[in-house]
């Protein structure tokens, strides 16, 4: 009998957690011989939905309908996999697994500890998230065990926490209509416009550094959704930021709206886009950076939080170091406007990139592009070797349900016979 697994997550959302849910589904689908997959979609903020008509999207739609019918019959599941922030984890099956991007700061919320201890296993996407989750403790006044209400000193998460990074996905580039870049040297940044991504400083520091030069910055961003109204608000914010620099020679381009995976691959491989810059305060993993690095695009970023898992690699002498244009930073308390009760703690910290270092890194890439590109190509080769789909999907599924090898072989043969 195949194990019935219920996957709960924003699988239709164009968001980080949406991508994470779809990674989990791709992994689970490689083992459908012994896992029967059911889906329950949840909303994630005010983000838009993926719209591509693909086999994968049609499969999700079919499974969502099938699951709704199954649940109406009050039939049970063997395993639940809940892809969201730990605040929302619940016991839905005999075995419950929480799968989260983790945290971009230095501390998780007390409710994460309580709900984490109600899970049988926790999976996170980076070693930064694992370290923060495992080392956070809360005073008894801050946390209660969710089922019993029992309070204990130095409350902490005791559920096993495992790390599975994202896998490299090779996608054919799809040109973006209307994208015309005036200059041969451009940087790219991909970030939602909000406090954590530090996009305002990214744009401001770029313009100040290249005000008198033929350099461009391509910005893929939005405020919340991909609607026309959101585009107007985003463009208005950008115009206001650039107004003091109206006489600049450097160019700034706004990309807004839904872009396919192929469109993003086109950006990463565009002959006029020479590097990607991310000056965010923290990342659970940093998927756009990872995708860009896997295409050989030089990166400008800090060696802090989730991206540290894939930007650090050994050089020829065996010394591990970041293979990027490194930006120095200070760890400081999160800004007041970034506090999110139950998620981003007001007493936690994250990285604040140093302005002079960020500008130096951008200048370094511009002046020494061939050397930086060579470094990026080495990182690309290492990432493609160590973050393959086959390897990461297997790691993930083994954490969900590790089947006996003999039984797996038998089920796979049976499945092949049934399909004939």
Architecture overview:
The chain has a six-stranded parallel β-sheet with strand order 2-1-3-4-5-8, with helices on both faces. Strands 11-10-9-12-13-16 form a six-stranded parallel β-sheet, sandwiched between helices. Helix content is 36%, strand content 18%. The model has no long low-confidence stretch (mean pLDDT 92). It folds into two domains: 3-167 and 388-408, Rossmann fold, CATH 3.40.50; 186-386, Rossmann fold. The protein is built from 13 helices and 18 strands. It has 420 residues and is an alpha/beta fold. Strand 10 (216-220), helix 6 and strand 11 (251-255) form a beta-alpha-beta unit.
Oligomer: single chain
In round numbers, the mean pLDDT is: 92
**Domain count:** 2
- What level of helicity do the residues show? 25-40%
Brief synopsis:
This protein has helices spanning 16-29, 55-72, 110-116, 127-135, 199-209, 228-242, 261-269, 287-294, 308-311, 355-367, 369-386, 389-400, 405-419; strands spanning 3-9, 35-41, 79-83, 95-100, 121-124, 137-138, 155-156, 161-163, 186-190, 216-220, 251-255, 273-277, 299-301, 312-314, 320-322, 325-326, 329-333, 349-353. It is of the alpha/beta class.
């Amino acid at each position: 009998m195949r194990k019935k697994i219920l996957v709960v997550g924003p699988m239709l959302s164009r968001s980080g957690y949406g991508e994470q849910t779809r990674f989990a589904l791709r992994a689970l689908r490689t083992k459908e011989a012994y896992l029967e997959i059911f889906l329950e979609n949840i909303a994630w903020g005010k983000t838009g939905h993926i719209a591509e008509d693909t086999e994968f999207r049609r499969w999700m739609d079919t499974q969502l309908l099938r699951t709704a019918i199954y649940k109406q019959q009050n039939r049970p599941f063997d395993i639940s996999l809940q892809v969201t922030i730990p605040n929302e984890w619940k016991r839905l099956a005999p075995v419950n697994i929480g799968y989260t991007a983790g945290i971009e700061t230095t501390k998780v919320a007390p409710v994460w500890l309580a709900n984490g201890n109600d899970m049988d296993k926790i999976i996170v996407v980076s070693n930064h998230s694992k370290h923060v989750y495992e080392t956070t403790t809360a005073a008894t006044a801050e946390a209660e065990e969710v089922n019993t209400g029992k309070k204990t000193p130095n409350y902490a998460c005791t559920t096993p926490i495992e790390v599975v990074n994202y896998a490299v996905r090779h996608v054919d580039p799809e040109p973006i209509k209307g994208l015309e870049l005036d200059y041969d040297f451009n940087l790219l940044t991909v970030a939602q416009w909000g406090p954590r991504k530090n996009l305002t400083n990214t744009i401001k520091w770029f313009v100040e550094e290249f005000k008198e030069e033929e350099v461009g910055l391509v910005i893929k961003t939005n405020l919340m959704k991909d609607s026309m109204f959101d585009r107007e608000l985003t463009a208005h914010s950008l115009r206001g930021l650039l107004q003091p620099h109206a006489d600049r020679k450097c160019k700034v381009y706004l990309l807004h709206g839904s872009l396919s995976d192929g469109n993003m691959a086109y950006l990463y491989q565009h002959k006029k886009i020479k590097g990607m810059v991310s000056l965010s305060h923290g990342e659970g993993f940093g998927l756009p950076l990872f995708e860009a690095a896997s295409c050989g695009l030089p990166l400008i970023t800090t060696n802090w939080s989730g991206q540290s898992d894939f930007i650090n690699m050994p050089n020829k002498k065996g010394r591990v170091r970041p293979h990027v244009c490194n930006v120095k930073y200070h760890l400081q308390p999160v800004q007041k406007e970034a506090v999110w009760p139950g998620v981003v703690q007001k007493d936690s910290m994250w990285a604040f990139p140093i302005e002079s270092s960020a500008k130096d890194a951008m200048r370094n890439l511009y002046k020494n592009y061939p050397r930086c590109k060579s470094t990026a190509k080495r990182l690309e080769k290492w990432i493609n070797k160590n973050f393959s789909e086959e390897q990461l999907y297997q790691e993930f599924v083994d954490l969900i349900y590790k089947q006996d090898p003999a039984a797996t072989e038998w089920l796979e043969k049976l499945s092949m016979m049934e399909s004939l």
